[in-house]
Amino acid sequence: MSQEDKIPLFRRWRSWYIFVLLFLLIDIIAFLFFTQYFS
Amino acid sequence: MSKLDWIVLIATLSTIIAYGLYRSKTSKNLDGYFLSNRSMPWYLILLSIMGTQASAITFLSVPGQAFSDGMRFVQAYFGLPMAMVVICIFFVPVFHKLKVFTAYEFLEKRFDKKTRTFTSFLFLLQRGLSTGISIYAPAIILSSLLGWNIYWTNIFMGGLLIIYTVSGGAKAVAYTQQLQLLIIFTGMFIAAYMVVHLLPEGVGFIDALKVSGKLGRLNVITTGKTSNGFDWSDRYNIWSGLIGGFFLQLSYFGADQSQVGRYLTAKNITESRMGLLMNGLVKIPMQFAILLIGVLVFAYYQFNPSPVFFNQAASEKIVETGAQHQLLAIEKTYQQQSAYQAGMVRELAKQPENPQLIKDIRANQQTLEQTRKTYKSSLKKASPSTDVNDTNYVFLRFVVDHLPQGLIGLLIAVIFLAGWGSIAAALNSLASSTMCDIHQQFAKTPKTPLAEYNLSRWYTFGWGIFCIIVAQFANNMGSLIEAVNVLGSLFYGVILGIFLLAFFFKYVRGNAAFYSAIITELIVIILFWKSSIGFLWLNAVGAIVLVLVALLLQLLLPVSTNKKSGINTMPDQ
Hints:
The structure holds 2 protein chains of 2 kinds. By secondary structure, chain A is mainly alpha-helical. Chain A has 1 helix and no strands. Chain B contains 21 helices and 2 strands. Chain B has helices spanning 3-22, 30-35, 42-53, 56-69, 80-98, 103-110, 113-146, 150-197, 205-214, 238-255, 257-263, 269-303, 312-316, 321-350, 355-382, 394-402, 407-442, 449-471, 480-504, 510-530, 535-556, and strands at 225-226, 229-230. In chain B, a hairpin with a 2-residue loop joins strand 1 and strand 2. In chain B, helix 3 packs antiparallel against helix 11 (257-263) and helix 17 (407-442) packs across helix 18 (449-471). Chain B is globular and about 70 Å long. At the A-B interface, helix 1 of A face helix 5, helix 9 and helix 12 of B.
């Protein structure tokens, strides 16, 4: 693997993609609780 | 504005221009001017992407949007992280491997010259017009606050950023965006702190949220469901955000040169991907935070009397005596209702779960909103040319009325810098598309790299002038952030559809792509014109219809007349 291909934090890009999508899911769940808590 | 505010404002803006000129040194060819010699690290790509997307409109309209409609606007960004992932997998590797200058250059390699030209034309039209609105947005602040002539303010606003954009191209744009965002985040953080600080004694951040929540302003997640089923005309709900927003963001980041041009400046694929993925992580929390400032301003005006209409300058223009008396009478009624509301809300802070009090506050809130509507309709009647949508004025009016000297200047500078960041990137991309997608395709004599570089600077300057002219006609557009998104949605679906064909439907060739694009653009315009469908859906409709029409046309058109694509658009893993 060349220097250019070295991926920060994770070994594969796929892990990064899953991480970003999980983060979106966490955002939505947190917002859902936020909405319900303050309504 | 005080002398101190002027000093802060002028010093901040001058610093940005000086920094932009200092960072203007590039190699005198298209690679240096438009792509910064492909040398940028991921964090500069991230800041540049964010600085391009977050315009003055973001910081003007979004808090106002939260004030009047609550936080559900954040859902429009739910599709963004998914779009970032798709772009990283499919778009980035192809753009980097082909070493394209613009996204549309890829379309010629994949389809043909006419498809490239048509798509770049749609981009130039859409981006040129929406950049005009982006110039107008901060200009209304100055004209409204200081009584300046809006036309001269537009010229002043657009002219200053052209200096460093023409001079330094993509490199100056990226470096100034870095400094701009630093100042913007600092300014917005201080503004949020000040709103909480200005709340009555004993009322804190959480109390402000509770009051806003009880009055329906913390509606972050909405489903769009009504008693009659799903409301397709509802602009912001989780589904329009996830699906429509995904198509909008995919089109914006994958097929709009103002964004593609930012991540093409990256050193390599890894740096581009990291910048985009980080954007996928931070964008939603950032929008949430800006909306939260609007909610805090809303809470402030629950504890304190609020203006009946936030664009004071517009109502002061009414000189006809009868109308003036009527407006003053409505204003007086509103002030009484507002003071009554403030008393009840202060009581609610002491006993937050009192059901009768909550009921009374909600009822009075409806009365307040009705009075505001009456005021606006009377104002419109007295002065039909007045824009009675005051969403964009809410935050600024609060800043000017309640923040201390110096901070007002800083917050106005924040609005300017946010505007400059996105306008500068747009001018750079408009020039790159004009130069690479139009000029180089149709120019009869080839030019030297230096001549192309000089011509590109002239194109940047020319687009700057064009956008200022558009800004002069941008009045009466209501919420400006919506105007930009609506305008984008008219064209983005089709542009995205062409790119989806290019990446995922290998057997579709140039003619089918080109004619389906024209047919679909007409369908999208008719849908927007004749139906009440929410604009976010137009992105999805445009892209899907285009793909279907192209597949159908490809069956009907003879394959021999089309160019065969030799480009591998599948991702490397």
